[in-house]
């Protein structure tokens, strides 16, 4: 336990010193140097080459290319949720105040980050609050995400954190902004129909990743949309939120393999099974069950959802960690080990209320992660490869994710 707490304190000190700003694996197009001398606006291939070059290079090119450290909305959402967990932890166990800070100091940080997140909403003709990333992102040669294009993934993490901030602080604005994000999911995202509505059962579909066309076949993105609508249903009782969340949930359950796994998406190029996106899927399913089904619907409605969660979790713990509890990226191979792979375990165990039965696994994964992926300065590495690994500090991808993940470990095991 002391090693876990010391690890977290080092990470917390590092992130606070950096004021939660940093680089990102995908921020190469923020280079002031390249934007000054290269025709990035006119060449998708050049944009893609720069992004992938920065992402794959084990050495950090960002200082010489003049890429600024910035806040990232999803990263701030992860930090915000983490600080909310710390407030809850010190409420349960006041002894932790000497290690993590007083309840008042932590609550002040919650308000600071929540207000920052409110200021980072994507601007445009969107129907509700939504968030995107602080960099242009080229996905394949024909698909460009301009900076701050909202996505359902970023919006889920941000709005979910604002709901938590409301519960911790009682500030009504946080809840109202989070609630408005349901309108973004419903009205700004498009839908990939799986089955048409039939008598006895409604339609099923996948929510798109963003309002842009061409990214509408990914299970985890759709289920995070379901999660967000489920949280909004919890606070409003709006049956439309529940109905649409259910349509996405049933599409995912229909797509679950017999062994409990999900491929990443429906397209031929999306047929892999990986670690942390499986965790995202389970997160979406448990949120729907707890907020829309549990204590509301009869057992025959709850059963297929609970069965899907149990099958998915069983696959997750048995196939995405090896016999020594070393995290794997894919179900059929280990490398590259991304920091999300160990980090998501602590979130998934908390969400599914499984922590009590998996202390040994959790301890082994945490010990491995601290030994192999935490720098002496406190930050966590992006990926470990069989060759040269990237040990660059990425604020959203690595540090915010692990800050949030370890806050759940502290809440479950120390509070």
Plain-language structure description:
- With about 425 residues, the chain is mainly α.
- The protein has 2 domains: about 1-25 and about 70-415, Glycosyltransferase (Alpha/alpha barrel), CATH 1.50.10; about 30-70, no CATH class.
- It has helices at about 1-15, 30-35, 45-55, 75-90, 95-100, 105-120, 150-170, 170-185, 220-235, 240-255, 275-295, 300-320, 340-350, 360-375, 395-415, and strands spanning about 135-140, 145, 190-195, 205, 335-340, 385.
- The strands form 3 sheets. Strands 1-2 form a two-stranded antiparallel sheet. Strands 3-4 form a two-stranded antiparallel ribbon. Strands 5-6 form a two-stranded antiparallel sheet.
- α7 (about 150-170) packs parallel to α9 (about 220-235), α9 (about 220-235) runs antiparallel to α10 and α13 runs parallel beside α15.
- It is globular, with a radius of gyration of 20 Å.
- The model has no long low-confidence stretch (mean pLDDT about 95).
- Average pLDDT metric: 95
Domain tally: 2
Using the coordinates shown, work out and report the CATH topology of the largest domain: Glycosyltransferase
Number of extended strands: 6
**What is the molecular shape?**
globular
| Secondary-structure content class | mainly alpha
Main pleated-sheet profile? 2 strands, antiparallel
State the CATH class of the largest domain.
Mainly Alpha
Q: Give the termini distance in whole angstroms.
A: 12 Å
Q: Name the helix and strand elements from N-terminus to C-terminus, one letter apiece.
A: HHHHHHEEHHEEHHHHEHHEH
Write down the oligomeric state.
single chain
Query: Regions with pLDDT < 50 over 5+ consecutive residues?
Result: none
Report the sheet-strand fraction.
under 5%
C-alpha Rg (nearest Å): 20 Å
Q: If helices are DSSP runs of H or I spanning 4 or more residues, what is the number of helices? A: 15
* Share of residues in helices: 55-70%
Q: What's the CATH architecture of the largest domain?
A: Alpha/alpha barrel
Strand arrangement in the largest pleated sheet: 1-2
